[in-house]
Specification:
- The complex is a heterodimer.
- Chain A is of the alpha/beta class.
- Chain A has two domains: 2-185, no CATH class; 191-325, no CATH class.
- Helices cover 35% and strands 19% of the residues of chain A.
- In chain A, the strands form two sheets. A seven-stranded mixed β-sheet of chain A has the order 1-8-7-6-5-2-3, sandwiched between helices. A three-stranded antiparallel β-sheet of chain A has the order 4-10-9, with no helix packed on it.
- In chain A, strand 7 and strand 8 (153-157) form a beta hairpin.
- In chain A, helix 6 (191-204) packs across helix 11 (314-325) and helix 7 (210-218) crosses helix 9.
- The longest helix of chain A is centred in the C-terminal third of the chain and has 20 residues, at 274-293.
- The N and C termini of chain A lie far apart (44 Å).
- By secondary structure, chain B is of the alpha/beta class.
- Chain B has four domains: 2-47, ADC-like domains (N-terminal domain of TfIIb, Single Sheet), CATH 2.20.25; 63-129 and 342-521, Rossmann fold, CATH 3.40.50.740; 152-326, Dimethylsulfoxide Reductase, domain 2, CATH 3.40.228; 565-676, Barwin-like endoglucanases.
- In chain B, a hairpin with a 4-residue loop joins strand 19 and strand 20 (455-459).
- Classes of the chains: A alpha/beta, B alpha/beta.
- The structure holds iron/sulfur cluster (3 copies).
- One iron/sulfur cluster (SF4) binds next to helix 10 of chain A.
- The site of one iron/sulfur cluster has 15 residues of chain A, from helix 10.
Chain lengths: 326, 678
């Protein structure tokens, strides 16, 4: 385990810029933290998850699929600079693992893996959550992890790419620090995790009446934020922009909270009410995905609860559901 | 990847977000985590606000009509032609033969400059903007009763009140991040009254949902006030200390017994009594209203009643109270503040006041400024058809879809000697123009917008405008220069704001460098002033609040045998006004791809119409094709249509009858017939 002071971390980050396009948590003028470049704001590693999902680096809100002109579809000549991205919390890393698998399943989504393949992903954990709270280490799911133990960083490389990056450093972490790390790994699941698992059981056992979803649906203003903010939401829409002698096809994040998401050309809609759509949003993550992928696809990153203007993110709904039905 | 903090270009809530761009192209939106209004969230329009910006339909070069066709032209040619023609019209027909339409989508700086161009360079007060169509009734009604025609309180007050009365506002759809705040407030125990006969989302959460007849708001509010007075629920101390003319109000509502009010509104007397008791019984109660109040031939009267109800119960000048008109457009508050109005300079300073005129004339280096108020936008069409108006310069508005009685509007616009349109897309109006000037959109320029709670906020340039398009303010300055006026040279928008602030007491302390973070709420008279979240704290802007009693007048056109339905118009959640941006945004367009009309199931059954049937809707002004949406959202006898759609345009049907004081058209009530197309 490597120990770095904040200054050493700064130097390390600076040294990466030559090879990599470095993206990491920074603070912007109005106090918002985002994952961006140090050119745009000071480093802001402490504070927990970033409001905007870090997986956008590989699956952006809007991305070009192709541009066709009279001469066909020209190959992209952009030389790709690989990304070094720091700022995934352990929960974000679980989300990333989930969508890595999703985008590779069956056929490989080239657009997603275009940047993803060559990227180095660094996790962040330790006592750097909101108000110094603990983010239990991921212990994997990334190339290397940065663990804030209160006054310095412990760096734990996992993949060969991660190891290569920190090869120059010697294992310097004192035993107390390593201990703190080990204790952190043992952190028991938090309350929200228990609520989520119980909610999943209730849904799979069909114990939640439709009237509950009518209530939740009545509170949904269809802002789509819960989907757009969610690192494991992968649905997208496709549009073509046509102008004289040119077609630009792009894809953009879509949302199952929209009526048009499932509406058929006839006008019929299998998800034609807010209640059905709200049920689907939760059900998909807690009941359908476990069937297909063997795990709940919500990793409690907290974003949908943070962006939902009416307080019906998944954690709020799971709590309400468990409180009322079991 | 670059992040640029800016302000949402859609509604007056004024959420801020970061535009994400990559190599000069926008690729998404990230909400601001700290903004006091949006608090990390956005509505669907905000989340998609990046998506129309690079649309291939964007105007990229000036266009000049040659042999009937709009052809690309150079800026020199187009701008010289604009000046030459405007001057020629003025020389021939007088100064007031031209009119400038400003825009609630443009920045404060641009609104200020266009009114300066009209007044200082072209010597006319013929300047107005679409506030005329939305809240002119508020500006008139609240100026008379309170002395200031703006939202009295702040959005955060919704968290600190006990009772909210929402009247004539579909808040979760039209001001979504205020609507969501109301939903949250109700979850936390706030009691909600919704007065709107559509079954809007808020109604599902309301303790009382009053589905009164369209256009019967005065009867409803007078009835409520009658009960409050007769049951002794008034705030006597407030009335005595802070208001005047109470006796006249008491006398005028004396005849509005709950039974009479019930009769006029179609409600039950009990509902009116319950509303009065709930509202007046609260220590702190807020009134939230919007177009359902203002867009009537008696819109100003509606606003007067609202003001009276608030004063009667002492609900002004404190946290969690107030009269809260929600301003529609992102910058309609600013458009008014900056004096894009025919009778007012910036800061609501009257053009009829010699001292004020002198002040502006001195600052602008002109000998004199025109004295008589100009034309309101809604009277421009009639003035033009009477031959008084020959040239129009329209910046960022689309009256072909947004004005009432489209057939009339088209005829007038086509017959103008000169129509110049400055916009980002070739709108239905721009398509009729003689000269089209391509403008930068919100993501491509600097400046400020003022939201509904009077919060002045900065936008920032994220990407370059397409082709040779230029920011509205740059175009206006260039026009002034070509007209031979040297007083409009600015290096940046901050310099324009400095000039506006110096001339506008309520903006006196507003400078760009103070607006970073989360802006400032006016009045902000000097550079150390922290801004004003709540108006009329110790006294009203006009001194004492004035009760203005009103008599109930019916809407101008009511259903009859030939036109048996009341048509009320409005917007949908997914589109913005005439759709020039949202209909070019994939997800938003997918949600509402075409014109529709809401029809109650009983009415539908009676005339043999099923959901999604094609319909013909006819009024005395015109007819349109649209699609049936059979829903209990509306009450029997009333149909609702949004005005976004050029094909199936609601405003081909509406009635261009105006409120005599505010000149707002009666968009909310006209009579139509509905037929099934076979
Ligand atoms: S907490 Fe919400 S945003 Fe995060 S993974 Fe779960 S569902 Fe998605
Ligand atoms: S974030 Fe909340 S309001 Fe928005 S779509 Fe999701 S559940 Fe609905
Ligand atoms: S609520 Fe209004 S300001 Fe906020 S994101 Fe939606 S349209 Fe934009």
């Amino acid at each position: 385990m490597i120990k770095l002071t904040s200054d050493q971390l700064d130097q390390f980050i600076t040294s990466l810029a030559e090879m990599w396009e470095v993206r990491l948590p920074i603070l912007l003028s109005d106090g918002t933290r985002i994952i961006g470049s140090l050119k745009d704001g000071p480093l802001a590693l402490l504070g927990g998850a970033i409001l905007s999902k870090p997986t956008a680096a590989f699956f952006p809100q809007h991305g070009t699929v192709f541009i066709a002109t009279e001469d066909g579809v020209p190959e992209s000549t952009d030389s790709l600079q690989p990304i070094f991205i720091l700022g995934f919390t352990p929960r974000d890393l679980a989300c990333l693992r989930f969508i890595d698998r999703f985008f590779a399943d069956g056929f490989c989504d080239d657009l997603y893996f275009h940047q993803r393949k060559s990227a180095v992903v660094a996790g962040i954990s330790g006592y750097c959550g909101p108000y110094g709270s603990l983010l239990a280490p991921a212990g994997g799911d990334c190339d290397l992890e940065f663990f804030w133990e209160g006054s310095s960083w412990l760096v734990i490389p996992y993949s060969s790419a991660g190891k290569a990056l920190v090869a120059e450093f010697t294992d310097s972490a004192p035993p107390e620090a390593e201990n703190r790390y080990r204790q952190a790994v043992m952190t028991p699941p938090d309350e929200n995790e228990r609520f989520l698992r119980r909610a999943s059981e209730l849904l799979r056992g069909n114990s939640v009446p439709d009237s509950f979803w009518v209530e939740i649906g009545d509170r949904c203003i269809a802002c789509t934020g819960c989907n757009l903010a969610c690192p494991t939401c992968t649905c997208f829409g496709v549009q073509d922009w046509r102008s004289a002698k040119r077609v630009e096809r792009s894809r953009m994040w879509d949302s199952c909270q929209l009526d048009g998401f499932m509406r058929e050309a006839s006008g019929h809609n299998p998800l034609g009410s807010e209640a059905e759509r709200s049920r689907r949003r939760i059900h998909h993550k807690l009941a359908a995905d476990p069937e297909k992928w063997g795990e709940i696809s919500c990793f409690l990153c907290g974003r949908c609860d943070a962006v939902c203007p009416t307080g019906i993110g998944i954690i709020a709904v799971a709590r309400e559901l468990v409180t009322r039905f079991g | 990847m670059k992040r640029t903090l800016t302000v949402c270009p859609y509604c007056g809530v004024g959420c801020t977000f970061y535009l994400v761009s990559d190599k000069g192209r926008l690729v998404g939106v990230e909400p601001s985590a700290t903004h006091p209004v949006s608090r990390g969230g956005l509505c669907v329009k905000g989340w998609n606000a990046y998506a129309f910006v690079h649309h291939p339909d964007r105007l990229t070069t000036p266009l000049v009509r040659r042999d009937g066709l709009l052809c690309p032209a150079s800026w020199d040619e187009a701008l010289n032609l604009v000046i030459e023609k405007l001057q020629a019209i003025q020389a021939k027909h007088g100064r007031d033969a031209v009119m400038f339409a400003s825009s609630a989508k443009a920045t404060n700086e641009e609104n200020f400059l266009l009114m300066k161009l009209a007044r200082a360079v072209f010597g006319t007060n013929n300047i107005d903007h679409c506030a005329r169509l939305c809240h002119s009734s508020t500006v008139t009604g609240l100026a008379e009763t309170f002395g200031s025609g703006a939202m009295t309180n702040s959005i955060s007050c919704l968290d600190q009140t006990e009772v909210i009365l929402v009247i004539g506002s579909n808040t979760t759809e039209q001001h979504p991040l205020i609507g969501s705040r109301i939903l949250n407030a109700v979850r936390n125990g706030v009691r909600l009254i919704v007065a709107d006969n559509r079954r809007i989302r808020l109604a599902r959460h309301a303790e009382l949902h009053l589905r009164h007849k369209n256009g019967s708001d005065v009867a409803l509010l007078n009835g409520i006030m009658h009960v409050i007075i007769s049951e002794g629920l008034t705030d006597r101390d407030f009335i005595a200390a802070r208001t005047e003319n109470y006796d006249a109000l008491a006398k005028s509502v004396a005849e509005w017994t709950p039974e009479r009010s019930a009769d006029a509104t179609g409600l039950k007397a009990d509902e009116i009594i319950a509303t009065a008791r709930l509202f007046a019984g609260a220590e702190r109660a807020m009134i939230v209203y919007s177009m359902g109040i203002t867009q009537h031939s008696h819109g100003v009267d509606n606003v007067r009643c609202i003001a009276s109800l608030a004063m009667l119960t002492g609900n002004v000048g404190r946290t969690g109270t107030g009269v809260n008109p929600l301003r529609g457009q992102n910058n309609v508050q600013g458009g008014c503040d900056m004096g894009a109005l025919p009778d007012l300079y910036s800061g609501y300073q009257k053009v009829s006041d010699q001292k004020i005129r002198d002040k502006f004339a001195r600052a602008w280096g002109v000998d004199e400024l025109p004295e008589s108020p100009g034309l309101p936008l809604t009277r421009a069409m009639d003035a033009a058809s009477a031959g008084h108006l020959q040239g129009m310069f329209i910046m960022g508005e689309n009256p072909m879809l947004s004005d009432p009685d489209q057939g009339h509007a088209r005829k007038v616009l086509e017959n103008l000697e000169l129509l110049v349109v400055q916009d980002i897309f070739l709108t239905e109006t721009a398509a009729l123009a003689d000269i089209v000037l391509p403008a930068a959109c919100y993501a491509e320029k600097e400046g400020t917008f003022t939201n509904t709670e009077r919060r002045v906020q900065r936008l920032h340039k994220a990407v370059a405008p397409p082709g040779t398009a230029r920011a509205d303010w740059e175009i206006i300055c260039d026009l002034a220069e070509r007209a031979g006026y040297p007083g409009m040279r600015y290096n940046n928008t901050a310099e324009i704001m400095n000039e506006a602030a110096a001339l506008t007491p309520i903006y006196g302390g507003i400078t760009d460098d103070r607006l970073d973070q989360h802006g400032l709420q006016w009045p902000c008279p000097d550079s150390s002033h922290p801004g004003t979240p709540i108006l009329h704290l110790d006294h009203f802007t006009r001194g004492r609040g004035r009760f203005s009693p009103v008599t109930h007048r019916l809407p101008a056109e009511l259903p009859d045998e030939q036109y048996p339905f009341v048509l009320t118009t409005g917007r949908t959640y997914f589109h913005w006004h005439t759709g020039s941006m949202t209909r070019r945004t994939h997800l938003l367009h997918r949600e509402e791809p075409r014109s529709f009309i809401e029809l109650h199931p009983d009415d539908a059954a009676r005339i043999g119409v099923r959901d999604r049937d094609k319909l013909l809707v006819i009024s005395r002004r015109g007819q349109v094709h649209t699609e049936a949406r059979v829903t209990a959202m509306v009450i029997p006898g009333v149909v609702f249509m949004p005005f976004h759609f050029a094909e199936g345009a609601a405003n081909a049907l509406t009635n261009n009858i105006l409120d005599p004081e505010s000149s707002i058209p009666e968009f909310k009530v006209c009579a139509v017939s509905v037929e099934k197309l076979l």
